[in-house]
Amino acid sequence: MGSSTTSNESNDIPCSYIPVPDSPDAAGAAVEPRRQVKGLFVIFCGMLVLISLVAFNGYYRASNNGHEQASLAAALTKIIVEESGSETVPASSRWQQAASRGVSAGVSEKTNRLFSSSNSNGEMYPWNNSMLSWQRTAFHFQPEKNWMNDPNGPLYYKGWYHFFYQYNPNGAIWGDIVWGHAISRDLIHWQHLPLAMVADQWYDKNGVWTGSATILPNGEIIMLYTGSTNESVQVQNLAYPADPSDPLLIDWVKYPSNPVLFPPPGIGATDFRDPTTAWLTSQGKWRITIGSKLNKTGIALVYDTVDFKTYEKIEGLLHAVPKTGMWECVDFFPVSKEVKNGLDTSINGAGVKHVMKVSLDDDRHDYYAIGTYDEKNVKFIADDVKNDVGIGLRYDYGVFYASKTFFDDSKARRVLWGWIGESDAEYADVAKGWASLQGIPRTVALDTKTGSNLLQWPVAEVESLRLRSDEFKDLKAKPGSVVPIDVGTATQLDIVAEFEIEKEELEKVTSESNVDKYNCESSGGAAQRGALGPFGLLVLADDGLSEYTPVYFYVVKGSDGNLKTSFCSDQSRSSVANDVVKKTFGSFVPVLEGEKFSVRILVDHSIVESFAQGGRTTVTSRVYPTRAIYGAARLFLFNNATDVSITASLKVWQMNSAFIRPYNPDQSN
Amino acid sequence: MTNLKTITMFFFFLIYVTSLSSIIHCRTLIIPNGESLMESTCRRTPNYNVCIQSLKANPASSNADVNGLAQIMVKVMTSKANDAINMIHQLQRSGSSSQKKALSSCASKYNAILIGDIPQATEALQKGDPKFAEDGSNDAANEATFCENEFNGKSPLTKQNNAMHDVSVVTAAIVRNLL
């Protein structure tokens, strides 16, 4: 960039460049005063450059955390982005990665216990064997002992449902992870099989982690899973049944040339896991996505393959959402706009929406968004970008993580598995010798009435566990009342209930200016009374109501007369013990014109799964009563609203055990 | 004119020197002091002093990355848990019968920290799934609090429980950076 000799240039000199001043002879004597101005200008620009370099240098030092090799441009961009998005943080750390959204104070839910200011008489409840053994469930999948986490590779093959899972064969904590295996005819009655895969290769020595199954059109089963290598690098591996003619799929073979995928350039060695089920592209190739992150932006990488052995990394990302952090257990599947049936993972076209789901490492919640899959550009576009993946809807507002769907072609449905962790203290898990459950498998479909959320519902087969039932019609509950529901014991129940608010009373209630103000999680739970709520059921309650878990609706009337409804599960009084999670979980639930408030609740010892409005909003919670156990557990209807009575009708079934046990070839079922 | 040339060249020179130091990251008089990784990491925990003291006591901390610092903290958690268990055994031997139940309960909590939380946290950090290390550290902090609550205000283990709690909370905060 040479200097120009024309005098006009002096006004256009950019500050990042210091021109060599013109030689004295060039312009002639008449330019003398301009040369002085030019000189001062040069000095001024020079000082600006100097100061900015000094400042950059100092700041860069402070922000150097070994992760980023920020260039000047990137660092400046980061300030602008973070200053607009971050909360108040000390000046020196404003350079650091912005806090991800939705994280409550940066601790996981298991640990963010309310050391009950409400229950601080200091009385510790000693857990005894009777209380601890009661916690084991009757009809939820769990291994006989030890730790379980993510569901893996669910599939249906030759008449059997297969379920694999992250398992620790050595203790009730996460560690030494291998693949457990179980089979069932009906997604409910499970039989344990030997471990499917153990950590016997260098490429999965430090963990045989989560993966998904793809069933090819010719019936061949492909299993892709993440291995943590002997150097803790996350790689993707291929495995397949040793004997496809064995319907029990007992033995598995790992592809001799594993790994098939290594972390690509620019992706961290420990940010590359949980490959999805593959779907066919219009070019006849198989496509998978794998979650990862770039700084604090959650991303989904895309790979194409023909044989599942060699892969082509597709340029770009299927999707990315800033500030959501690492995307684990990505799931990507179509749902029909027209029929209630599930769709094979490869289906696309008119009449189809796509769902993208991620598990956020940062807050241990599963989020999804409905949108369109642009196959040509390999992009997922959410219908509602304000509620994009990771910042909008969740599958479940309680304890529910690492979930995964599969297409069950025997019944044309898409089935969802979810890991339900413990909400108690480690020492109780160690004492009882096990930790974690799986939720009851749910069907997943688009809610065609709202178009903006999914519906989840326990698979129909769970109804085969129903024993005798009790029906209650038109029970009235006045404001501030509790009504016993006599069903005998109340630890294994399937409850279907409907509620109506007294119309005349509803009309008299004053409307609120801010209809969105109620938030289950920050509310005072069922004890916080409003005009139109809370009302619902108390499960796992004892006669004296010293322990109870309310599952309830809380309604707010807006200025236009419309109602906004929240659906919550309140664990704050679920147990007199102090060392269990006592939060309230839940969210808004759409209630359409003409609909009653409806809920289905599965109670199975230490797990309560609640589904509102046909499964528009669901809440799963873990509950550990010390008194409301065995024959002492009861069910109540309650109405803690101040201004309205409610009418409830419900049917309650006793639920049989699913007799989940090790596989015995002699008892063929 | 000559002055202008001199000044300009002087500026050039200064800029060159500054750029050089930016590129090769060495300190000069003009550059403000930077922070070590240990210091900036500890700033982002609820207890800077506990963090710095715990890390500085281990010589490996000066060369460690964030994952390494977290693993050092887990070792510190082990030592605090052992301190507590030793104290519990001492108190159990000296036979205070009114605290027998509470001491026994505390022993089972610290046992869970040693055989549950800490191995889980260590493995999670070594094998690359740090969220389980955050869970383990947070649980350890909780167990210490539960133990303290056992004594209804007359705890003989306050010092050990507080140490366990504080170190665990710092560990969890450091691990959060890895998520």
UniProtKB/TrEMBL annotation, chain A:
The keyword Hydrolase applies. Residues 140-458 form the Glycosyl hydrolase family 32 N-terminal domain. Pathway: Glycan biosynthesis; sucrose metabolism. PROSITE patterns: GLYCOSYL_HYDROL_F32 (PS00609). Residues 16-132 form the Beta-fructofuranosidase N-terminal domain. InterPro entries: Beta-fructofuranosidase_N, ConA-like_dom_sf, Fructan_Metab_Enzymes, Glyco_hydro_32, Glyco_hydro_32_AS, Glyco_hydro_32_C, Glyco_hydro_32_N, Glyco_hydro_beta-prop_sf. Keywords: Glycoprotein, Glycosidase, Hydrolase, Membrane, Transmembrane, Transmembrane helix, Vacuole, Zymogen. Its EC number is 3.2.1.26. SMART domains: Glyco_32. It is found in: Vacuole lumen. It is an enzyme of class 3 (hydrolase). Residues 461-654 form the Glycosyl hydrolase family 32 C-terminal domain. The chain crosses the membrane at residues 40-60. Belongs to the glycosyl hydrolase 32 family. This is beta-fructofuranosidase. The lineage of its organism: Eukaryota, Viridiplantae, Streptophyta, Embryophyta, Tracheophyta.
From TrEMBL, chain B:
Pfam families: PMEI. CDD domains: CIF_like (cd15796). Keywords: Disulfide bond, Signal. Residues 1-19 form the signal peptide. Residues 33-174 form the Pectinesterase inhibitor domain. Transmembrane segments: none annotated. The keyword Disulfide bond applies. InterPro entries: C/VIF1, Invertase/methylesterase_inhib, Pectinesterase_inhib_dom. Belongs to the PMEI family. This is Pectinesterase inhibitor domain-containing protein.
